[in-house]
């Protein structure tokens, strides 16, 4: 069943049926003022943190998981019939109510049509602002005049902190008030003073400023208001039938010791064909700020200028120009939709918000996970190198001087001054007390990709502080990261798995060994060796090379079983992922990472990937391992806690699918890589949205495997490492765009049925207008390139060949 479609030219997904299987969301704003909104206008807003800077209340895990939100009610005063500008919360019968939601780049437009009244509401956060705009256009499309009342409504939190607001009502309800100020409702929290944030050292005795939020309107007079939620809704009612809307009159009740809200009533008459624009404004700020903001829209509306429209266009221009850095046209529209818009946009959203705010999490941990963030960077390097470099430098400054990464990098991270997991204070502050084995190893592909894409080789010599003490060049940081794992090994000479490797559920400890980390380490050594050679550091290169040889032998002697790699060894000597095991006897990640790392080539690579195809693949992607754990479990295999076929317990974890696609392209299997991509491509599931559940335009964290009752159902939308991993596998693997130090390889690995396709890529400021000719029906292999008329053998273009705009023909064969 389908609920919408892609509008490629506007870079939008259009939801045409509002009763989607789950709320289908979008992100608005910036890390300063962020917002999440569903296709039915549900969701929440926050300043800096979804957990501790919350403005709109949202009830996680409520029955429809889609309330409350940013609601605009409409009432026909001739007969009292009422509806909402988004289908929820009033939920008129879809036979009489028309609805459309357009999710675009940092904006969402929701339209309604009911009884000859059309509304269109654009929701967005203007660039660099601490407030959001709900730009409502309302039109009477009928033949008679209409007497209407509109009610804009938002439920405020009583406390900035989500938990206090949700479960500590004996406190939070008594610190919040609302005032009506003519054109807005002002909510004041802690008017008598507050305790400053507990993140600040010794803060509990410090008086802080009151916190203010406002909900106002420009373009119409307010005829009545409610600042108290229950006065607006009425007792024992829901958002679907508020008393004020039913009666046609707000009660002018401010909030005092109860739940605050902003509800503004506007009465208006619309002549036949008449259209009005009314702008609701919600944000953080006191009365002065509110008045400034609201007055700017009033002035624009009365002067006939379209301030909201201009701001919306500014956002579109910014986002579209970012996405323009890579655009493709292939025979597969669903593939193009993901590359050109949605996967790229998701990469930016995960990069910006990390794992902070969604309909599944609200960011309680207040920091950046090390591994997630370093991987997220990879997803945007090809689109915005500068942004990537800034975050990469931050993450290097969160590496401890012993080489490991801080598991959680606090939002107020201070390089050189942080405590580490070796000290109990770190655990008190972050709840994390152990190193993960993999964290700093993600730096290697990320640094390499950044340098090759940007051409900024000198980054390798940039001096960056460590998190705890001292400083070193990026090169030395990397060497230290390798040392961290060399210093922590088990009896086979593989790196210890510590508190976790990529798999949060695998607790191998200080002596159990992880093959994932072993392959990551091998890859890190090969990248470092290459850096050392370029820097003319032969001793370092030899050092890295000798560890690679040692690992090669260990892989051969202990990790390879006929046609597959094992997953690891416990401290007690049990082999995880051995084919002789009853459970979990074939794992996905060691097979793919053996190839990605370069440790397995030729026959071994082929056999390992064939095992995945034969034993783990399903029509919705490859399972993380199989069969699920039912017996072997704690303390090592914590995934046993999950139902079989779910998440890390034999589920189809989405992020590793990217590694699988990449590995297949590395061995030249374009058909199989594409098959795997199609299995997990959200856009390809648009017609079967009732099976997948999640938004058909974003990757989720995991899909249910074959053991569950709902094979194919996906969970945990938007904020997942899948975005970057799949993006890398497409850009680097399928499209074959592989920047090198002094140029670029263009070496696609595609389905043999694609006879041609085009790519437009901005590479170090130069346009590459690429046409791929695959009339030979290849999966991989480039005969020659024609670059601006000059024929070049192979797939490499040296930077010196490039002009500002380049026409490149890639002839496969
Ligand atoms: O790798 C992790 C990630 O850091 C958080 N989500 C789960 C993944 C797999 O365990």
TrEMBL record:
Leading EC class: transferase
Family annotation (CDD domains): GH94N_ChBP_like
SUPFAM superfamilies: Galactose mutarotase-like (SSF74650), Six-hairpin glycosidases (SSF48208)
One Gene Ontology biological process: carbohydrate metabolic process
Domain of life: Bacteria
Alphabetized GO MF terms: carbohydrate binding; glycosyltransferase activity
Domain (Glycosyl hydrolase 94 supersandwich): residue spans on this chain: 11-298
Pfam families, per database record: GH94_b-supersand, Glyco_hydro_94
EC number: 2.4.1.280
Keywords annotated in UniProt: Glycosyltransferase, Transferase
Domain Glycosyl hydrolase 94 catalytic: 319-736
Official protein name in the record: N,N'-diacetylchitobiose phosphorylase
């Amino acid at each position: 069943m389908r609920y919408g479609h892609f509008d490629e030219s506007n870079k939008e997904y259009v939801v045409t049926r509002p009763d989607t299987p789950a709320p289908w969301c979008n992100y608005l704003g910036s890390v300063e003022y962020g917002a999440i909104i569903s296709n039915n206008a549900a969701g929440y807003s926050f300043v800096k943190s979804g957990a501790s800077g919350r403005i709109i209340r949202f009830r996680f895990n409520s029955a429809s998981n889609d309330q409350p939100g940013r609601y605009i009610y409409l009432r026909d005063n001739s007969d009292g019939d009422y509806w909402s500008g988004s289908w929820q919360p009033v939920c008129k019968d879809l036979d009489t109510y028309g609805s459309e939601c357009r999710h675009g780049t940092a904006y969402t437009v929701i339209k309604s049509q009911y009884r000859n009244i059309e509304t269109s509401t654009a929701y967005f956060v203007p660039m660099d602002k601490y407030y959001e705009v709900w730009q409502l256009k309302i039109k009477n499309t009928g033949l008679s005049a209409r007497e209407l009342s509109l009610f804009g409504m938002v439920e405020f939190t009583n406390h900035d902190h989500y938990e206090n607001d949700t479960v500590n009502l004996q406190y939070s309800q008594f610190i919040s008030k609302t005032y009506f100020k003519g054109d807005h409702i002002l909510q004041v929290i802690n008017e008598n003073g507050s305790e400053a944030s507990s993140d600040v050292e010794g803060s509990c005795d410090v008086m802080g400023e009151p916190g203010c939020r406002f909900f106002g309107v420009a373009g119409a007079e307010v005829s009545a208001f409610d600042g108290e939620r229950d006065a607006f809704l009425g007792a024992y009612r829901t958002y679907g039938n508020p008393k004020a809307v039913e009666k046609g009159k707000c009660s002018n009740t401010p909030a005092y010791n109860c739940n605050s809200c902003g509800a503004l009533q506007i009465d208006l008459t619309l002549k036949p064909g008449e259209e009005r624009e009314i702008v609701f404004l919600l944000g953080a700020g006191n009365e002065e700020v509110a008045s400034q903001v609201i007055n700017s829209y009033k002035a624009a509306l009365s002067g006939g200028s379209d301030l909201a429209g201009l701001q919306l266009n500014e956002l579109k221009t910014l986002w579209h120009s970012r996405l323009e850095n890579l655009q493709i046209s292939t025979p597969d529209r669903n593939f193009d939709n993901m590359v050109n818009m949605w996967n790229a946009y998701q990469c930016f959203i995960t990069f910006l918000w990390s794992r902070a705010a969604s309909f599944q999490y609200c960011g309680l941990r207040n920091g950046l996970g090390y591994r997630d963030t370093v991987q997220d960077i990879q997803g945007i390097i090809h689109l915005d190198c500068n942004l990537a470099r800034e975050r990469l430098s931050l993450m290097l400054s969160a590496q401890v001087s012993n080489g490991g990464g801080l598991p959680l990098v606090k939002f107020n991270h201070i390089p050189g001054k942080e405590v580490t997991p070796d000290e109990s204070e770190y655990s008190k502050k972050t709840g994390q007390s152990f190193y993960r084995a993999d964290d700093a190893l993600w730096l290697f592909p990320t640094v390499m990709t950044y340098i090759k894409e940007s051409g900024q080789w000198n980054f390798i010599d940039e001096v960056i502080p460590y998190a705890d003490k001292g400083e070193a060049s990026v090169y030395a940081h990397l060497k230290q990261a390798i040392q961290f794992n060399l210093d922590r090994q088990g009896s086979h000479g593989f790196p210890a798995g510590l508190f976790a490797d990529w798999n949060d559920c695998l607790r191998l400890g200080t002596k159990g060994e992880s093959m994932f980390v072993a392959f990551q380490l091998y890859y890190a050594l090969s990248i470092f060796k290459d850096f050392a050679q370029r820097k003319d550091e032969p001793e370092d290169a030899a050092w890295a090379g000798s560890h690679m040889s040692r690992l090669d032998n260990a892989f051969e002697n202990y990790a390879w079983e006929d046609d597959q790699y094992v997953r690891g060894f416990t401290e007690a000597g049990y082999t995880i992922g051995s084919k002789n095991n009853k459970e979990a006897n074939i794992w996905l990640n060691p097979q793919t990472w053996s190839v990605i790392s370069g440790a397995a080539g030729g026959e071994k690579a082929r056999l390992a990937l064939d095992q995945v195809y034969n034993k783990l693949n399903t029509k919705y992607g490859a399972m993380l391992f199989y069969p699920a754990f039912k017996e072997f479990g704690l303390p090592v295999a914590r995934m046993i806690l999950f139902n079989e076929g779910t998440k890390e317990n034999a589920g189809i974890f989405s992020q590793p699918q990217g590694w699988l696609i990449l590995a297949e392209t590395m061995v030249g299997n374009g058909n199989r890589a594409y098959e795997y991509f199609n299995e997990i491509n959200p856009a390809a599931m648009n017609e079967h949205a009732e099976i997948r559940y999640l938004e058909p335009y974003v990757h989720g964290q995991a899909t249910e495997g074959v053991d569950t009752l709902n094979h194919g159902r996906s969970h945990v939308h938007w904020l997942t490492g899948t975005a970057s991993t799949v993006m890398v596998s497409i850009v680097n693997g399928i499209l074959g765009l592989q920047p090198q130090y002094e140029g670029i390889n263009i070496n696609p690995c595609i389905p043999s049925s694609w006879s041609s396709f085009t790519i437009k890529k901005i590479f170090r400021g130069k346009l590459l207008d690429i046409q791929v000719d695959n009339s030979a029906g290849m999966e991989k292999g480039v005969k020659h390139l024609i670059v601006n008329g000059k024929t070049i053998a192979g797939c490499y273009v040296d930077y010196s060949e490039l002009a500002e705009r380049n026409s490149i023909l890639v002839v496969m064969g």
